[in-house]
Specification:
Number of helices of chain B: 9
Order of helices and strands of chain A: HHHHHHHH
Oligomer: heterodimer
Helix content of chain A: over 70%
Distance between the termini of chain B: 200 Å
Structural class of chain A: mainly alpha
Radius of gyration of chain B: 61 Å
Strand content of chain A: under 5%
Chain lengths: ~260, ~325
C-alpha cells in the first residue's frame, strides 16, 4: 500500500518533470525558424472556429443560469439593482475564463491527445522524423500556439454571450433595459477585472495545448493507448487549469487589490 | 537525448515546489502590500469597531485611499486599528484628522472614514496615531428613533383631538373655519381695527403737535411736565386734595345721617319743619309777644313818671352823663 502510494507520488513528479521538459522543448522550438505559419493558421481555425459554437452556447447558458439562481437571494436583500454588477464581475473575473477553458479542455485537449496519440501509434510521427520534417515543430508548436492565441478570444466572446444571457433574464424578469444593464456592468467593471482575466486565459490556452500535445506525443503503443491519452489529457488539463487559476488569483490580487 | 526518470522526477519536484513558492510569495505579498513602497501606515483606536474587518476600505473625504491592515484588541475598551494609506495622501492628511467607522451603504461592508479636523495642524507622518470618533451605533439610533416615534404618536393624538374640535364648530377656531358669518365679522372687525388704528395715528399726530406746544418754556404745562420740583408740589397738592375729599366725603356722610335723623326723629327741628299747626301757633304767640312788649314798654314809661320810682331813673341818667363827661 505504502509502496504503491510512493510509486504513485513518484510517477506524479516524473510526469510533472516530463511536462516541464516538454514545455522547455516547446519554447526552444517555437523561437527557432522555420515557422509553420500555414499550419498555425489551420490549427487556429480548427481550435478557435470549431469550438466557437460550443463555447458560446455554454457561456450563454451559464450567464442565464447564474442570473436566475442568484436573483432570489439578491431579492431578499432588496439589491436586485446590483444584479448586473454581481453577474458582470463574477463572469468577467472568474466564470467566463474558467468555464471556457474547461469546455476547451474537454473538446480541444482530448482532440489533440487522440490525434497525436493515433499518429504516434500508427508511427506517423516516426515517419515524419525519418522524412526530415520536425514533427515537434509541425505538430506540437503550432497546436500549442493556436490554443494560446485562440482561448483569450473565445473567453471574450464567451463573456459577451454570458452577459447577454444574464441581461435577457434581467430584461424579462426585472424589466431592466439592455442599455441600462450593460451601462451598469461596464460601470462596475474596471481594467483591474479585465486584464488579469485575459492574461489568465493565455495561460489556460497554453496549458490546454501543452497537456493535450504531451499526452498524445508520449502516447503508449496500442489502440488502448489512444483512449488513455485522450482521457488523461482532459483530466490532467482540468487539474492544471485550476492550479493556474489559483496562482493567477493570488498574483492578480497583489496588483489590483489596493 | 532522452532524459532519465531520475532527472524527470527532480524536475517534477522542482516545478511543484516552485509553484508552491510562487503561491506563498503571492500570498505574503498580498498581505504586505506596502512591499512596493507606495503605502504608509496610520493608527487609530476605537472603543467599538462595529464589525470592521481587515481589508475594509479607508476613505478620506469620500475617496478610497487605502485599506484596513490590522485590527488588534489592546484592552477591554480599546481596539487598535492599523490602516494602509497610499503615499500620495501624505501631503493631505493632517494630524488632527478624525477616523470614524461608517457603513458603505445600507447592507454594505464597514469602512473607515477619515474626516479632516478643524483648524491648523501639521501633516501626518508614517506610523502616526490619529484620534477617532465613535459614531452612534445603529442600535442606539433605532432606540432613539423609537422614543421619537412614541412622542410623535402622542403629538399626533393631540393634534387629532385639536383638529377634531376645530371641525366640530364649537370652539372659536372651529366657528371661524366653518361659519362664513364669523369670517365676515372678523373681516369687519379687522376693517374697523384698521380705521381705528388710522384714527389713532391721526390722534397721535395731533397729540404730537399739542405736546410740541407744551414744550414752550415757562408755560404752566411745560413747568408741570419738565420741572421736577413743581411736579412734586403738584403731587403733594393732589395728595392733599385727595385727603380733603376723603374728609369731605365723611363730613357729607355725617351730614346726610344727621339730616336723615332730623327727618326721621321726634326732635324739635323736625317738628318745626313739618308741623304747620305749630307754625300758626308760633305766629300767634309772636304777635301776642309783640303786643305784650308794646304794653310792657307803655307800663315802663308810666313807671318812670311815677313818684315812687322817679328818683331811681334820675340817678341812672346822672350816672350816664357822668361817664360820658369823663370819656371826653
Amino acid at each position: 500500500m505504502t509502496l504503491e502510494f510512493t510509486k504513485n507520488i513518484r510517477q506524479f513528479f516524473i510526469e510533472i518533470g516530463e511536462l516541464s521538459y516538454f514545455a522547455g522543448r516547446f519554447f526552444r522550438e517555437a523561437v527557432k525558424p522555420p515557422f509553420e505559419f500555414k499550419e498555425l493558421l489551420r490549427q487556429c481555425y480548427q481550435m478557435g472556429n470549431r469550438s466557437l459554437v460550443l463555447v458560446l452556447v455554454t457561456s450563454f447558458i451559464i450567464g442565464l443560469v447564474l442570473d436566475l439562481q442568484s436573483r432570489p437571494t439578491m431579492e431578499q436583500f432588496g439589491a436586485v439593482s446590483m444584479m448586473p454588477n454581481m453577474v458582470g464581475i463574477s463572469i468577467v473575473r472568474e466564470l467566463g475564463p474558467v468555464i471556457t477553458a474547461l469546455v476547451c479542455a474537454g473538446r480541444i485537449a482530448s482532440g489533440i491527445g487522440a490525434e497525436l496519440g493515433s499518429m504516434r501509434v500508427t508511427e506517423q510521427i516516426d515517419a515524419m522524423e525519418v522524412s526530415g520534417t520536425n514533427p515537434f515543430k509541425y505538430l506540437v508548436v503550432t497546436r500549442v500556439m493556436a490554443t494560446t492565441l485562440m482561448l483569450p478570444l473565445l473567453v471574450i466572446l464567451g463573456d459577451g454571450l454570458a452577459l447577454y444571457g444574464s441581461a435577457l433574464v434581467e430584461y424579462f424578469k426585472g424589466a431592466v433595459s439592455f442599455q441600462l444593464y450593460f451601462t451598469t456592468v461596464f460601470d462596475a467593471l474596471s481594467y483591474g477585472d479585465l486584464i488579469p482575466a485575459t492574461a489568465k486565459s493565455f495561460f489556460f490556452g497554453f496549458a490546454i495545448g501543452l497537456v493535450g500535445c504531451y499526452k498524445g506525443y508520449y502516447c503508449k503503443k496500442g489502440t488502448a493507448g489512444v483512449g488513455v491519452a485522450a482521457n488523461t489529457a482532459v483530466v490532467f488539463t482540468s487539474m492544471v487549469l485550476f492550479v493556474i487559476d489559483f496562482v493567477a488569483v493570488f498574483i492578480s490580487d497583489i496588483f489590483y487589490d489596493l | 537525448m532522452e532524459k532519465t526518470a531520475k532527472e524527470k522526477f527532480r524536475l517534477g519536484i522542482f516545478v511543484v515546489a516552485g509553484t508552491i513558492l510562487i503561491v506563498l510569495a503571492a500570498y505574503l505579498i498580498g498581505n504586505q502590500q506596502h512591499i512596493f513602497g507606495n503605502t504608509f501606515t496610520l493608527h487609530t483606536t476605537f472603543k467599538n469597531v462595529n464589525g470592521l474587518q481587515k481589508g475594509n476600505n479607508v476613505r478620506y473625504a469620500g475617496i478610497n485611499i487605502g485599506t484596513v491592515k490590522d485590527i488588534e484588541m489592546i484592552n477591554d475598551t480599546a481596539i487598535s486599528v492599523a490602516m494602509l494609506i497610499q503615499n500620495k495622501m501624505l501631503p493631505h492628511i493632517k494630524k488632527n484628522a478624525l477616523a470614524t467607522i461608517g457603513s458603505d451603504g445600507l447592507v454594505g461592508s464597514m469602512i473607515i472614514n477619515i474626516v479632516p479636523g478643524q483648524g491648523e495642524a501639521s501633516l501626518v507622518k508614517p506610523e502616526t496615531m490619529i484620534s477617532s470618533y465613535s459614531r452612534v451605533a445603529t442600535a442606539d439610533m433605532l432606540n432613539t428613533l423609537s422614543v421619537t416615534n412614541e412622542n410623535a404618536a402622542l403629538l399626533l393624538q393631540d393634534l387629532l383631538r385639536i383638529s377634531g374640535s376645530m371641525n366640530s364648530n364649537t370652539g372659536a377656531i372651529g366657528r371661524l373655519l366653518n361659519e362664513p358669518e364669523m369670517a365676515e365679522d372678523l373681516q369687519e372687525t379687522l376693517r374697523n381695527l384698521r380705521l381705528a388704528s388710522e384714527n389713532t395715528a391721526m390722534m397721535m399726530k395731533e397729540l404730537g403737535t399739542v405736546i410740541g406746544k407744551y414744550n414752550i418754556e415757562q408755560s404752566v404745562a411745560s413747568t408741570v411736565f419738565s420741572d421736577s420740583i413743581a411736579g412734586a408740589k403738584l403731587r403733594l397738592t393732589i395728595d392733599h386734595l385727595e385727603n380733603s375729599s376723603v374728609h369731605l366725603h365723611s363730613v357729607a356722610t355725617q351730614l346726610d345721617a344727621m339730616v336723615g335723623e332730623i327727618k326721621e326723629g321726634k326732635g324739635a327741628i323736625n317738628y318745626l319743619s313739618t308741623d304747620t299747626v305749630l307754625v300758626g301757633h308760633l305766629e300767634r304767640t309772636v304777635q301776642n309777644l309783640d303786643q305784650g312788649m308794646y304794653r310792657f314798654n307803655q307800663n315802663m314809661e308810666a313807671l318812670q313818671h311815677n313818684f315812687l320810682t322817679r328818683g331811681y331813673f334820675r340817678k341812672l341818667e346822672r350816672k350816664k352823663a357822668k361817664s360820658e363827661k369823663s370819656r371826653d
